[in-house]
Amino acid sequence: MYILSKCGLVGLVLALVLIGLPSASPAWIFGEVVTIEQLSFRPDAIQVPGDNFAVLVVQNREEAPILHEITSPSLFESGTLIQVLGTGQIEYNGKRVSRILLYPGEEVVIWFYAEKGRSYPFQCNLNGHAMQGVVRAG
Ligand SMILES: [Cu+2]
Fold first, then answer.
1. Which of the ends of the chain has fewer CB neighbours closer than 10 A, N or C?
2. How many CA atoms does the CB half-sphere of 130 hold within 13 Å?
3. How far does residue 138's CA lie from ligand 1's centre (Å)?
């Protein structure tokens, strides 16, 4: 538990992935951390190499008690989404992830396959927020 609290969920997930990789493989993980502050995603656009597995980490860092959601039909589609892990609440429509709710202090790790040339927009429209972000696979 000491390691968990010190490194947080992201560190734990990355550690598990690195341990799971065969030692001959290059241990690169593509992706970035996006924080939510003052009703916006920061940064609101990130780039990952195309035709690779990628990770999008989103952390709600609001100082006020503001709940946010993450919706993304393109990230959550089958064939793209691999796994969602986090301290937020994951909602499903059947077997498909429909949205992720994040209270301040919560975070989520979204694993997916980024296809070259595609863009993966994500948004929060909770309570009229109209927040937008995008992952571009170059
Ligand atoms: Cu929001």
1. N
2. 1
3. 27
**Over the stretch 46-66, which tens digit does the pLDDT of each residue have?**
999 999 999 999 999 999 999
Structure tokens at 75: 């990230």
Tokens of 55: 């990770």
Question: How close is the Cα of 38 to the center of ligand 1, in Å?
Answer: 9
What is the maximum span of the chain, computed from C-alpha positions, in angstroms? 48
Distance 98 CA to ligand 1 centre (A): 15
Domains along the chain?
27-137 (2.60.40.420)
Quote the tokens at residue 137: 């696979």
